[in-house]
Design goal:
By secondary structure, this protein is of the alpha/beta class. The protein has helices at residues 25-33, 52-58, 66-72, 92-95, 112-120, 142-161, 188-199, 214-219, 245-258, 282-286, 332-350, 363-368, 379-388, and strands at residues 7-10, 37-41, 61-63, 75-77, 84-85, 90-91, 101-104, 124-127, 169-171, 174-176, 180-184, 203-207, 223-224, 264-267, 293-296, 313-316, 319-323, 369-372, 375-376. It has 2 domains: 7-123 and 332-388, NAD(P)-binding Rossmann-like Domain (Rossmann fold, 3-Layer(aba) Sandwich); 150-330, Rossmann fold, CATH 3.40.50. α6 runs parallel beside α7 and α6 packs antiparallel against α11. The longest helix is centred in the middle third of the chain and has 20 residues, at 142-161.
Length: 392
């Protein structure tokens, strides 16, 4: 494959809570070996334990500020959605060269301003969260990478907050029964939470609106909670759809029946592009045993629990509620490693041709491109942007 003459740039994330970086020194080294030019803003990887010296040794050029990176780069790799830099007063997309490309979690179906700026600046915006879940796209699936981290961390956090053992123990003082865990939502994060809780020795059961995940749940040694499920509860790409009010009412009944005997609840029920469904009400929390723990992975999207707040740990009715916020940044080394592989593979797929032409008929590109040279491509983005207006 002929190398495209493009400069790849990595600015430092301006979100102070984000400790991850979109390219590691390892992936920089591989790109440099392919003949690409890499520019990295100083201290871009510092919070992920990748100092500037590692990037320089890998062949990247270290630049002093974000403006210098945006001014020179044809391709920008980021993690967090671009936003206004309070220090300069300018939006990150406004700093990009006209016609340049950005790979990031762009939130194009939730933030109208981002789409407007992509169009205005004639930018190509590749939304990592819109990559379809196809076999061919697995190596690019950043949502799976982040979900894996979140599920693992949720289980570890819950076990740390719980005032009792997770495994069954036979001691001179008597037998300790294993902790009972309920995982709500068996997507990638939920499945990883199940697997980690099982490794910790807990007794785990799980609930999900998609019957197809039953086999996966049971393969991890957990019990799948049965209930009558709609046939059209997920999209063709495997994401959950929004359920009807009647179905949600039945769902709440099933969940509520288990809470009085549950020590740990991990909620991971998300509907892409929409507010997270509330599946654990205040009255349901009140029914949980004193000292039990609820970790809400959907806290940043409105919360699966009525009482959770992102970034807060609090006690209500004797129950510890942890509102998860940016859990991937709690494991910045491995999160950055996984994401960097995803974003590089997505980049190679987008620019697979011998020149800078992009195959818009490619299913991955057609779904993940919010815009191509300023034109809206993704049908999902068109639906939200053109039909529904501001979703922010």
């Amino acid at each position: 494959m002929k190398k495209i003459e493009q400069v790849i740039g990595v600015p430092k994330e301006i979100d102070v809570n984000c400790r991850c970086v979109p390219l590691t020194p390892q992936t920089v080294k591989s790109l440099v070996a392919e003949g690409y030019s890499l520019i990295i803003q100083t201290k871009a990887g510092e919070k992920a334990f990748y100092p500037d010296a590692f990037y320089a040794d890998a062949g990247a050029k270290i630049l002093p500020d974000a403006a210098s990176v945006y001014d020179q780069a044809d391709i920008i790799f980021k993690i967090r959605p671009p936003r206004v830099n309070e220090a300069s007063g300018k939006h990150e997309l406004e700093l990009m060269k006209e016609g340049a490309t950005i790979f990031a979690f762009l939130t194009p179906t939730q933030n109208r301003q981002i789409v407007e700026k992509l169009v205005e600046r004639k930018l190509t915006g590749f939304a990592m969260e819109l990559i379809p879940r196809l076999s061919r796209a697995q190596s690019m699936d950043a949502l799976t990478s982040l979900g894996t981290v979140m599920g693992y961390r949720a289980a570890i956090i819950a076990s740390n907050l719980l005032g009792k053992f997770c495994p069954l123990l036979m001691t001179p003082g008597g037998t300790i029964q294993p902790a009972n865990v309920l995982v709500i939502g068996a997507g990638v994060a939920g499945l990883q939470a199940i697997a980690t809780c099982k490794r910790l020795g807990a007794k785990v059961e799980a609930f999900d609106t998609r019957p197809a995940v039953k086999e996966q749940v049971e393969s991890l040694g957990a019990r799948f909670i049965e209930m009558e499920l709609p046939k059209d509860i997920e999209t063709k790409y495997g994401y959950a759809k929004e359920a009807s009010p009647e179905f949600i009412a039945k769902e709440l009944e099933v969940i509520a029946s288990r809470l009085p005997r549950t020590d740990i609840v991990i909620t991971a029920a998300l509907v892409y592009g929409r507010k997270a469904p509330c599946l654990v009400t205040a009255s349901m929390v009140k029914s949980m045993p004193p000292g039990s723990v609820l970790v809400d992975l959907a806290a940043e999207q409105g919360g699966n629990c009525e009482l959770s707040q992102p970034g807060q740990t609090k006690e209500e009715y004797g129950v510890i509620i942890y509102g998860a916020r940016d859990l991937p940044s709690q494991l910045p080394l491995h999160t950055s490693l996984l994401y960097s592989r995803n974003v590089v593979n997505a980049y190679h797929n987008l620019y697979a041709a011998e020149d800078d032409a992009v195959d818009l008929a490619d299913e991955i590109n057609a779904n993940a491109l919010a815009t191509y040279k300023g034109e809206i491509v993704s049908e999902l983005v068109k639906k939200f942007f053109l039909d529904k207006g501001d979703q922010s």
